[in-house]
Fold this sequence. Notes:
The protein is of the alpha+beta class. The chain has helices spanning 2-27, 32-57, 62-150, 155-179, 182-187, 189-203, 221-242, 271-276, 283-293; strands at residues 207-212, 246-254, 257-264, 297-302, 308-315. Helix 3 (62-150) runs antiparallel to helix 4 and helix 7 (221-242) runs antiparallel to helix 9.
Amino acid sequence: xxxxxxxxxxxxxxxxxxxxxxxxxxxxxxxxxxxxxxxxxxxxxxxxxxxxxxxxxxxxxxxxxxxxxxxxxxxxxxxxxxxxxxxxxxxxxxxxxxxxxxxxxxxxxxxxxxxxxxxxxxxxxxxxxxxxxxxxxxxxxxxxxxxxxxxxxxxxxxxxxxxxxxxxxxxxxxxxxxxxxxxxxxxxxxxxxxxxxxxxxxxxxxxxxxxxxxxxxxxxxxxxxxxxxxxxxxxxxxxxxxxxxxxxxxxxxxxxxxxxxxxxxxxxxxxxxxxxxxxxxxxxxxxxxxxxxxxxxxxxxxxxxxxxxxxxxxxx
Length: 316
Ligand SMILES: Nc1ncnc2c1ncn2[C@@H]1O[C@H](COP(=O)(O)OP(=O)(O)O)[C@@H](O)[C@H]1O
Ligand SMILES: [Mg+2]
């Protein structure tokens, strides 16, 4: 009696499993792997049914025993083939995922490169187009200055025009340099970051200490831009948001690993809140995207009242 109950329970559960598997077939778009596994469930239920027949008929016939054995073999084959097909499916999903990630990276790289090229072009246009005009205005002004000096009046106005022209020339240099720092293109990231920190130090806003062991070392242009732009953004953030008085930046190259460590003593913030909240800016996420585009890692650590530190690690 107990055996009968066990057989009945098995049959019911196996029919339910088979029914679920068959209904699931549509969701899997009738994939062969799932059809085979569903068939295996149906045969398992059929096999238990044979057990039920044996229970009522007593001694099973030779035919029934053969049927039972071959059902067992068929079930095993169905399960093996089904599982192998599912494994293939997982592999192909994984391959598709890797390809998708690669394609995404290529698109991001292309966007970043286009952006940098546009900035370069713009900087060049400003420098080559507007620069000479302003310089010749300056020359004409100094020629005029000599003439005006002889007559009276006008020299004051001329003086202020000259100083405005000088301001325009230096603003033009700054804009063009910010857009595409020639020092980065010509001398590499260490020189460019040092130059940027020197300018900030001159303002007296805060003190930046920059150390590096890669003075003349050149990297792939994309990587150099990433390091430079990240350093500038982190420094700008400290100036704008943190009230820090001191920043340490260390740019190090050991074997083929380049790291940039950034530590400041500002008021700190909760990066999680910034990521999800409405304070979310473009600066930090741009660093993250740029670093990822050259296969690097970017770690930002900060806590309210504890300052902010950041690490960029790249294989070059
Ligand atoms: N060094 C820092 N110290 C304190 N708060 C910071 C610092 N860096 C970033 N934050 C906070 O994170 C926010 C997002 O920074 P960011 O992505 O660079 O955008 P943005 O600078 O344009 O606001 C900032 O608005 C600021 O609240
Ligand atoms: Mg910012």
